[in-house]
Amino acid sequence: MDFVLLYIVVALGLSTVLNLLLKRLGVSQIIGYILTGTIIVYAFDLREYGSSAMLGHIGDFGVVFLMFTIGLEVSLSKMNSMKAEIFFNGFLQVSLTAIFIFLVSYYYFGLPAVPAIIVALAIALSSTAVVLSYLKSSKEINNPYGQRAMGILIFQDIAVIPILIFLGFLTSKGDQSVAFILRDTFISAVLVLGLLFIIGKRVMTWLLHFSARSEVDELFMSSVLFIVVSAGLLASFMGFTYSLGAFVAGMIIAETKYHHKVESDIAPFKDILLGTFFIVVGMKIDIVFFIKHIDIIITTFILVFISKTAITYVIMRITSSHTRSLKTALALSQVGEFSFVIFAVASVGGLLEKELESLFILVVIFSMIVTPFFISKINRFVSYISNYQYLGLDTSAFVTRKDHVILCGYSITGKFAAKYLDEIDAPYVIIDNNPKHVQEALKDGKEAYLGDMSKLSLLEALQAESSAAVIVTLDNIEKKRAICEAILNHTKNINLIVKISSLEDKENLADLKITSIIDDKLEIGRMLVERMMTCQLR
Question: 339 and 123 in contact (C-beta within 8 Å)?
């Protein structure tokens, strides 16, 4: 027990120091966690624990909580609107990539059929942990390319289930028919979704309602943890992945009024457990084997990178522009964490040689190490080669700014607001999460950025607490409320002016301490009467 505590303390201290140093260099903290795992393993000679099932399960819960937070941003209505991104793009990406990798592995590299199939299925998957954690932290998950990447990653997580079923069928040596396995899987899926959406939704809403009313943060947090872990365990018990159950639970909570509070409260747990996941990944690195086969590993990674990027780009071009397709393809060019599971199951079942498993595990780890270095440069890279104007926010421009107006939204109302701000010569900046609106603002000569004003990091970057006012002109009431809540939680001393279009909007915002709510219909009616009063009688 004392040694376990020593390992934990050393891992915490080492990861903190490494990440502080890497942050100064602008390097992702993912690298720090992976290096921590590798150093701990070799410093304390713990190489036999690198493949520990218990450590693997603990690390997996980092991905579980990440998928839960993704579910919070993907309500049922949004999931329905993302059918093309998830099922069309996702299916084509996984299937075409797997087919291409199989053909190359089987015919060009001469791998036997079964190992070639396993390698193809594993390489077809990308890293949910790396890509989605970056997209969330950078707020690009709400951008068009971020939405497309997220849709494909969601399908990949779903695709893990039939892949594992297929591997189980290969290792069962024909004990069960494919029809029998598919029937059991379908029944399990119906049971899981039924329990979560029918019974689970009522239990979750009830639990969050009463824990929130208690005004005890610990009770609310424990309720959220109970929901996430329970949903993950239920899915696992029925033969699915932990993360899929957590994702569905997040989707259910996204339909309630608690989803913003849940997302902010769960963030520290998600980040700590995600760090644990990458530490476990680092523990799998065999330095001697890596050095001995470094040329093969790097060459394989380059081939995988080029192949996945090219295939995903071609698929995305069916429905998307060149720039969005290229950014999505580059973001999904690495190999993901679920590949570890596929290789482990195949190795235990005798479908994959140990040396081949070790080689491809190192290819996966190498791709996950390299990805954080280039994924943050995707926008600028695409801008450079495609003559495309990057709409990201340059936070350095706001370090000393104060008494400026933040105009949220540049649709019709936002454009008129900007016109009147120009007339009074007031300094202002436009923020919109619609790239089309941002492009229009830039074309009109305005200072405009792409972003989601409901995110704390963006409010801090914009120096919202030092602004003269924030004007919200959006029409979507859910997004409008989320922005208002985020602003008022960030700073109470702020002039917040919000446009509404209906009595329902007004009632929805009634509990918030908004400085001024402007009803567009009421204002039009008042102006009509004022104009009538100034008319000369004939």
Answer: yes
